Each structure stands twice: as structure tokens, then as C-alpha cells.
Amino acid sequence: MDAGQSGGMKTVDMLRHPSAFVPMAMSFSALLFVTLHLIIYGVTRESDEGTAAHLWQLLMAAQVPVIGYFLIKWLPQAPRPALVILAGQIVAALAAVAPVYFLHL
User: Fold this and answer.
1) Gap between the Cα atoms of 25 and 84, Å rounded
2) pTM for this structure?
3) What confidence tens digit (pLDDT) does each residue in 52-90 have?
């Protein structure tokens, strides 16, 4: 059996399912909002969180149930590809969290 295959399902094939790619897209969208906010306004301290902060929070929180569904559905059927995609989802989420954490936004 090939390294990208488990139970007949390849990682690339699994990535075609929304529960696999939607959390990564949400993380990259959240990162885009933060990046655009930093480009336009710079690193500023606001008394009230702006729209970008609220959208970031919603995108990051909304992906948790999607990832949970992905794990419940795919981990028992194809563990290796599911774990590879989970690692990608985690990396994408960490990429979105990094500027907020390091810049104390």
C-alpha cells in the first residue's frame, strides 16, 4: 500500500471533500483579514475590536465543528490520509493565529 493511501482513499481524493478543505480555507481567509487590516491600519490598539477582529474570531471558531465532523467521518475510514489533512488544517490555523499572537492584536 502506498504512503498516501489507506483503505483505497488517497489524501488528494479526500481533499475534494468540503470537510477537508473548508477549515483550511477558513483559516486562510482569517489570515487574509488580519493581513489586510495590518496593511491598511498597521499595528494599532483599538478600544473596541473592529470588523476584522470579529470576522477572524468567527472564522476560527466556526471551523472547529467542521474539523470535528471531518475527524468523525474520515478517521475511522482512512486514518493516514485523515491525519495528513488534519495536520494541514492545524498548520493553517496556526498560520492564522501567529500574527495575532506575536503582534498582540
Assistant:
1) 16
2) 0.85
3) 889 999 999 999 999 999 999 999 999 999 999 999 999
